[in-house]
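With this grant's support, we have paired protein sequences with backbone structure tokens. One protein thus recorded is set out beneath this paragraph:

_____
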Amino acid sequence: MRATHEERVLSALRAYGALSRGDLATRVGLSRTTMSEITAALLQRGAIVVADTDAATREGSGRPAERLVLDPDSGQFLGVDFGHRRVYIAVADASHTVFAEGSVRYPDGTAWSERIRLAMDRIDTLSQETGVHFGALQGIGIGVPGPYLADSPGIPAASWMHRLAPEGVESAFTERFGAPVVIDNNTRLAALAEALARPDVVEDLLYLRLSDGVGGGLVVSGRLVTGSRGFAGEIGHVTADPSGSLCRCGKRGCLETIACVPAIFQACRDAGSHVDDLDDLARAVQRGEPAVDAVLREVGAAIGRALGAAAMVLNPEEVVIGGDIAHVAPVIVDQAAATLRYELYSVPSDQPQVVRAAQLRDSDGAFGAVAAVFHQSPLLAGYPDLPPAERADPSRRRSVQ
């Protein structure tokens, strides 16, 4: 109940600006005693501050009343993207502007308790670096790897997902920040962010992200698709080579075993090129190393075949390949597009209009997590987008619709 009252108070201050406790009590429909308790807690946390008093406009005698406002340095919405080997964090205000972001890496297989600790530490560091605190958080969006149903009690029962299950994630963030939490698959959230990144929102999108793992997302008629058990868009676990390497899911030859970033690095090393990170790969691409080019084209072809099967069934408006490696090694996207065109040759009128690299980079999942909170929050239903002229300096801030 207290969280609901606080949310209503913060919403009123966002909508109307500076208000006295009495005005707040009237607008929110709470007693003055309850309002005093709620505002005292919000002031103590730094969610709101005293702007001034109503002395200039007050009629009659009596002590001037303090007027309260949202702390301009308070973050309003938090997006967290937990990947297999890193967590990315983005903080946005109510105008959908991302004003703080950062990431931290960890080894694959790290326990969720440690992932959560690293995320919290990074959030604290962002607060110190930017001067922003999180007392006024209205919502938290969290992306996790693997199939996930936001309205289910947990991950579908499969041994590999039990190892990745977000144990204690929701409770940790709820207890720390006292704000509602929305959890979904991180690549599905990245697909949402990509669909919303363009001026003309893409209604039907097939999205594939190449990162420490390989995941996918579907946007159909402007809505994210989960499927019956959260597996919709899991293109990374489509079999690409039945006799291939063992995948984390227990099968052999999943697309992820060929097209995830660590697998691409290893294939380049096996071909005789020193590639340990994206910078090494970028230099090899710039030098035009034949062995690396052959590896990347083979990966692109495998991706194109998997996407071709999905596109034949779904007939999307756009097919997008995300992840930093799609920009570092564009030949992957080019080869995937060429293979996809071949796969759909028999139905040319149904080919996707665009096959492209994603506009967003490694931040896409965190941006999508923020976007999911915006679109699900009843406080922001119908909230108008700011016109371009009123947006913050684009050189310093980034926007999530």
